[in-house]
Task: inverse folding
């Protein structure tokens, strides 16, 4: 573990969306669809989708959304992507990104996010590091196994990780 | 019966009602209510259709409504009807003034003044034209007249003082200022501390210092006016410079120190003054050191002895550093004074700090340590040959490599550092190393490192920019464009990378893409190209012109260069706005600077590029008249009937195709134009006039060349290319003396240059065929030729050059090529020897850039050398990416 890096957050816009593509390309084995990028830009929500800047340039990003939970009027925060460039990992940048989303929830839980009661994400079953990260740092729990969630990578299955917020 | 009809002019007044209307016309004109002015002028004209002054005024109003031709006709008509009216003459002058026809305007104003000598308005207008045209004597006379008529206006006094100053009557100017100050009553606001009083005092001081050998008085005056001056920075600078001029070095040192205390520690010029004071240098060196650009200072300009260096280091250590330890300049400047281990240590601290911080310009800053001495002064080395061998460069490379390996081994810059570095330190270390590779011409290694950087942090735009630059230098402009465009896409609000991409695209011949990219930053409505023209975006137009020239679109290229020339005409015209404004605001120091700048306007680099571009294009048109006569019919008379039929058919087909193409182009242009018109409702711009340069193509090439070449000779005498162009133009115009003059200038500036050598040989060979000359001219040409050829025959002169080039391993590649070409020129059987001159030297020569390698290849092909492939493989070893090279 190297020393911690204090990052600053910045908005994802139409003018810098290519950087999100570069970061994702460097971090994920899957390619995201155009609609994902379009929605991030269209959302214009700096609290849910953001870049992490260090020393003036982008080293990571987190993108989340508020979605309906099927069969109820409850909602949840869903983390679509979280990534930090390999060279900058292990320095608390991912933690700061997730924490900032949780902070946003805390600030809005009686207002815009009053119907939200959990935060969740999908993680490939082989990705031990990620599961550890969410469990130990933030107390996420392992949920259901979703089979054949991914199409082009092996193993194709994933777990739902979630954390009850209230 | 006396003739009282006002229509006949000559002072016969209009009746009251019409006279009032006429006053209104003038009022509306002045308040720019042109439609109302026209309406009332028409009312007068209904009754007195031939009233001269009304006709003239109506014309003037129309001129401001962009109806130039109608305006001219009306004003002339008005003048014909009333030749003795000063109003008509004044208006006539104003009309010429708006056409920038200044000499005619001055004549008209003077005519008006002959009729009405006391018109202040006309006198003021005249004075402005005079200073614009630098008729300084006339300007002084006019300002004197105005002052005599209205001695109570501040502006009139200052303008007269300025006129004296510009005429070189410095004492006179001072006394005008003093008399003016004497007219003020005690306690007047003009006499108390404030901007205007301050500027006037500093202006007076400037004039005092311009009087030869008068520094003492100027220095004393500074002290007397101290209480008035609010611009303390320039007050202190003047004081320090006067003290240096007078040799009062200890006092100058104190003044410099007080400037540091005022917070001017980051200004390298003050550091230069400080160091000059300590070393007690002469005035000339002080002035030169003070004028150094950017962050350069005396320490990186003048070679110093070790005692001098020690003296300066002691001063910095004891006097400056303790008080200003946070200043970057205070830390940076002494680095140029230390040597050996101390340099290694200090440089190390400097570099490590920058790597941790992430300073993209670090390499650039470090390159200012790579100094070579020339004529007793330091210059920053630019040729990889010099750089690679330089001890400071080797040291920097050594340090960078050390940091890189230490970071890789244990994430620390130094093995015994306490903390590990953040990941960006390694990134910036690689980036620095790539920059150093660039300086040394090792593009492949640099590109490989940058690929590693991009993999590490694909979001950093600087990486793409440097990689693009390296790719470009290694001859692969297409990939360079792709790389830059990718970097540009990362941050579409970064104007710098956008411009850089545009520039590269133009270089790669992608003019449509270039316009597309730069349009992201122009006004969104209207035609972007017109917008760029309005914004006077010269670099783009120069790039586009060069792009067209490479595509052999001669007319369009000429047209684009002409746009830049037009911008400079506009810059020159722009000073008009300052003539009255600056005097009113008493910014006289800045104003005289502007006048000086305008006098030297044509020496600016952008103008030089445009003018030299135009000359080169016209030279090509002159040398290849076929370009302009493409449509001319072939000679049918020598053909057989069948051939004739065939040739005519081909010609018909070609013509048809050309017409079709032209029509399509027109349609496209129209469509674009319409869009522009609708969006911003603008009228025809200058850009729409002769958009394809067809008119420019019809001009006489040599006349145009001569026009621009003479401007360059006058305003850019310090550029080598000015004189190569003058030579090339003069030889074609058979102006042998001008050609000879150019050769002597080149000889003095750089007798080792290929451009000079080539032309001396050319001159020597052609000298026999110069034709009949006057005996005096003949002698000058003969003596000049003998002198330039160093009393040798042309072939011995070339032989001497061959030996010289063979003797110098690093003799520049362009010179080798020129010598080889000369060798073949005089003796076609020496192709092998000539080839050896180029190929054997390899790329260890100076100036062995991709571009000069291409020229060498062209030369080898030109004399049908058998070793073309050898050269190709030599070059490809160094520049494996070089495109279109075989």
Result:
């Amino acid at each position: 573990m190297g020393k911690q890096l204090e990052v600053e957050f910045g908005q994802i816009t139409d003018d810098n969306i290519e950087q999100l593509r570069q970061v994702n390309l460097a971090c994920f084995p899957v390619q995201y669809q155009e609609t994902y990028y379009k929605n991030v830009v269209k959302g214009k929500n700096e609290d849910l989708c953001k870049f992490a800047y260090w020393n003036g340039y982008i080293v990571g990003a987190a993108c989340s959304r508020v979605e309906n939970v099927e069969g109820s009027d409850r909602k949840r925060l869903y983390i679509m992507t979280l990534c930090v460039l390999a060279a900058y990992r292990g320095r608390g940048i991912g933690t700061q990104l997730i924490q900032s989303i949780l902070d946003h929830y805390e600030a809005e839980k009686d207002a815009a996010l009053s119907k939200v009661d959990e935060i969740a994400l999908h993680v490939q079953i082989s990705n031990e590091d990620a599961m550890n990260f969410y469990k130990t740092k933030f107390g996420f729990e392992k949920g259901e196994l979703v089979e054949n969630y991914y199409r082009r990578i092996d193993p194709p299955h994933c777990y739902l990780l979630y954390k009850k917020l209230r | 019966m006396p003739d009282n009809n006002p229509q006949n002019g000559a002072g016969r007044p209009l009746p009251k009602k019409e006279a009032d209307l006429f006053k209104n016309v003038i009022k509306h004109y002045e308040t720019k209510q042109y439609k109302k002015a026209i309406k009332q002028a028409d009312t007068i004209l209904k009754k007195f259709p031939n009233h001269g002054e009304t006709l003239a005024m109506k014309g003037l109003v129309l001129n401001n409504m962009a109806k130039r031709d109608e305006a001219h006709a009306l004003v002339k008509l008005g003048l014909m009807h009333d030749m003795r009216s000063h109003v008509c003459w004044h208006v006539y002058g104003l009309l010429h003034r708006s056409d920038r026809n200044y000499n005619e305007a001055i004549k008209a104003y003077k005519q008006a003044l002959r009729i009405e000598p006391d018109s202040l308005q006309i006198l003021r207008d005249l004075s402005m034209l005079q200073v614009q045209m630098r008729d300084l004597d006339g300007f002084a006379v006019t300002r004197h007249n105005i002052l005599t008529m209205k001695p109570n206006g501040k502006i009139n006094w200052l303008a007269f003082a300025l006129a004296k100053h510009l005429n070189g009557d410095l004492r006179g100017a001072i006394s005008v200022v003093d008399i003016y100050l004497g007219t003020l009553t005690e306690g007047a606001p003009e006499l108390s501390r404030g901007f205007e009083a301050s500027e006037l005092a500093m202006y007076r001081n400037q004039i005092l210092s311009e009087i030869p050998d008068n520094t003492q008085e100027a220095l004393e005056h500074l002290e007397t006016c101290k209480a008035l001056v609010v611009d303390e920075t320039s007050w202190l600078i003047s004081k320090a410079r006067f003290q240096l001029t007078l040799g009062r070095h200890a006092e100058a040192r104190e003044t410099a120190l007080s400037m540091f205390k005022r917070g001017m520690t980051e200004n390298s010029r003050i550091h230069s003054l400080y160091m000059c004071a300590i070393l007690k240098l002469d005035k000339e060196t002080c002035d030169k050191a003070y004028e150094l650009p950017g962050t350069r200072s005396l320490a990186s300009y003048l070679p110093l002895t070790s005692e001098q260096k020690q003296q300066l280091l002691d001063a910095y250590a004891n006097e400056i550093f303790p008080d200003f330890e946070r200043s970057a300049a205070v830390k940076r400047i002494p680095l140029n004074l230390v040597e050996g281990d101390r340099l290694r240590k200090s440089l190390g601290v400097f570099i490590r700090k920058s790597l941790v911080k992430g300073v993209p310009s670090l390499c650039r800053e470090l390159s200012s340590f790579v100094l070579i001495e020339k004529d007793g002064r330091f210059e920053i080395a630019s040729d990889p040959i010099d750089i690679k061998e330089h001890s400071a460069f080797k040291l920097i490379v050594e340090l960078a490599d050390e940091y890189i390996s230490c970071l890789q081994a244990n994430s620390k810059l130094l093995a015994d550092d306490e903390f590990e570095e953040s990941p960006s330190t390694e990134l910036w270390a690689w980036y620095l190393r790539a920059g150093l590779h660039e300086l040394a011409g090792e593009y492949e290694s640099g590109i490989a490192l940058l690929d590693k950087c991009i993999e590490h942090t694909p979001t950093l735009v600087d990486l793409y920019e440097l990689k693009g630059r390296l790719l470009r230098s290694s001859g692969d402009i297409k990939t360079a464009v792709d790389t830059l465009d990718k970097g540009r896409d990362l941050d579409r609000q970064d104007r710098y990378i956008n411009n850089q991409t545009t520039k590269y695209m133009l270089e790669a011949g992608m003019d449509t893409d270039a316009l597309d990219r730069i349009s992201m930053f122009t006004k969104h409505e209207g035609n972007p190209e017109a917008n760029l023209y309005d914004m006077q975006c010269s670099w783009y137009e120069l790039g586009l012109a060069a792009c067209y020239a490479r595509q052999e679109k001669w007319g369009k290229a000429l047209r684009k260069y002409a746009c830049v020339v037009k911008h400079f005409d506009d810059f020159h015209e722009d000073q008009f706005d300052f003539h009255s404004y600056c005097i009113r605001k008493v910014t006289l120091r800045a104003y005289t600077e502007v006048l000086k700048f305008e006098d030297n306007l044509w020496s600016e680099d952008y103008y030089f590029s445009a003018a030299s571009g135009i000359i080169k294009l016209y030279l090509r048109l002159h040398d290849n008249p076929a370009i302009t006569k493409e449509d001319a019919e072939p000679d049918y008379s020598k053909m057989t009937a069948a051939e004739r039929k065939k040739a005519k058919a081909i010609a018909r087909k070609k013509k048809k195709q050309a017409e079709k193409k032209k029509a399509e182009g027109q349609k496209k242009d129209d469509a674009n134009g319409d869009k522009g018109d609708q969006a911003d409702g603008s009228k025809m711009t200058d850009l729409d006039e002769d958009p394809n340069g067809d008119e420019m193509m019809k001009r006489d090439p040599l006349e145009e060349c001569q026009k621009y070449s003479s401007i360059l000779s006058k305003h850019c005498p310090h550029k080598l290319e000015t004189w190569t162009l003058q030579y090339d133009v003069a030889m074609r115009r058979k102006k042998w003396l001008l050609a000879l003059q150019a050769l002597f200038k080149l000889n003095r500036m750089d007798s080792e240059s290929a451009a000079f050598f080539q032309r001396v040989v050319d001159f020597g060979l052609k000298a026999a065929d110069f034709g009949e000359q006057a005996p005096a001219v003949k002698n000058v040409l003969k003596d000049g030729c003998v002198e330039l050829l160093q009393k040798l025959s042309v072939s011995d002169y070339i032989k001497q050059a061959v030996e010289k080039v063979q003797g110098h391993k690093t003799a520049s590649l362009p010179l080798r090529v020129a010598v080889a070409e000369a060798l073949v020129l005089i003796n076609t059987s020496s192709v092998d020897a000539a080839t050896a001159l180029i190929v054997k030297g390899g790329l260890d020569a100076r100036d062995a850039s991709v571009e000069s390698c291409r020229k060498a290849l062209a030369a080898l092909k030109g004399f049908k050398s058998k070793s073309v492939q050898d050269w190709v493989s030599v070059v490809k070893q160094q520049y494996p990416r070089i495109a279109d090279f075989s």
Summary: Strands of chain B lie at 371-374, 377-380. The interface with chain A takes residues 358, 411, 419-420, 422-424, 427, 455-461, 489-493 of chain B (CB under 8 Å). The first strand of chain B starts at residue 371 and ends at 374. The radius of gyration of chain B is 34 Å.
